[in-house]
Amino acid sequence: MNERIARILVVYNPMAGRRRITRLRRFVQGLRAGGAEVTVAATGHAGHGRILSRDAGPDGAFTHVVAAGGDGTISEVADGLLEAMRPSFPPASLSMPGPVMGVLPLGTANVLAHELGVAFAPGDNARALLSGRWRTIWPGRIEAGGQARIFVQMASAGFDAQVVNHLSLRAKRVLGRGAYAVQAIREAGRYDFPPLQVVLDGQAHTAFGIVCSKGRFYGGRHVLAPEATPLARGFSVTLLDEPGAGPIARVALGLLCDRPDRVRGLRRVRASHIALTAPDGLALQHDGDPSGGSVPCIITDAAHPLRIAV
């Protein structure tokens, strides 16, 4: 095995559950069987994955930093790696310093893993990581309330952000992806669908919900934006043009059938700079977790790309 990929930090979300700990152990065993030196660090609170990966830094201590968890853990690790790279990154350069990021999907939806074809089986994932293959992705950046966070798959405001912000961790552990459907039914009767003012690359729009996608998939392997890719700059922006539970039900059916183009009142626009304003307190979410801020916000590409092991 190439010595360059021998030192690996695994950032693990212990909320993943007992069955997933077994998968983590098999993954680590596979890495060590391949000759890698492996350090496992468990997150202790929201945002801890960002701190752990930031401290791994571009100083050569680790050649890979692996996010072992769900999409929220992945976005935290990506955020920390990009922060660590910032001082050493040549402007406008693709000569990327720092560790390659790995992904061991252990979460509820695992959208980025589906998007990039990352192996779910721990042994296969370990072998793929040690092979040295990687792809370059361009994460997104959401700025609200003076704070900025990185996301790798999507960010949104409106009904689905309301669902994410009110969803309990216990429900996710018990019901998995079904928890989102249950919470959506609860929110459909009480969410009032305030209008959002959306500016996409200088063009003004009004919508009752917005999803800014880096990739095709939403909530697992449901196709929302078939033209989107995390391998390029920019976003596919999905706008909900009609308020109410009826349009939301149509969107849900369109997602289940992987036919978003046939949903009345839903449209997509390609954009690189998104500015949102709405009534104060309208929630935001990114990569399936609350963003910790609210509209108004600005969404752009991250300053630099990331290498993801595949």
TrEMBL record:
One GO MF term on file is: kinase activity
Q: Which Gene3D superfamilies match?
A: 2.60.200.40, Probable inorganic polyphosphate/atp-NAD kinase, domain 1
Q: Which domain of life is it from?
A: Bacteria
Question: Signal peptide: which range, if any?
Answer: none
Q: Which Pfam families match?
A: DAGK_cat, YegS_C
Keywords, A to Z? ATP-binding, Kinase, Nucleotide-binding, Transferase
In what residue span(s) does the DAGKc domain sit?
3-146
The record, for InterPro entries, names:
ATP-NAD_kinase_N, Diacylglycerol_kinase_cat_dom, Lipid_Phosphate_FormReg, NAD/diacylglycerol_kinase_sf, YegS/DAGK_C
Q: Quote the PANTHER family the UniProt record gives.
A: LIPID KINASE YEGS, SPHINGOSINE KINASE
Q: What is this protein called?
A: Diacylglycerol kinase family protein
Source organism (scientific name): Nguyenibacter vanlangensis
Q: What is the lineage of its organism?
A: Bacteria, Pseudomonadati, Pseudomonadota, Alphaproteobacteria, Acetobacterales
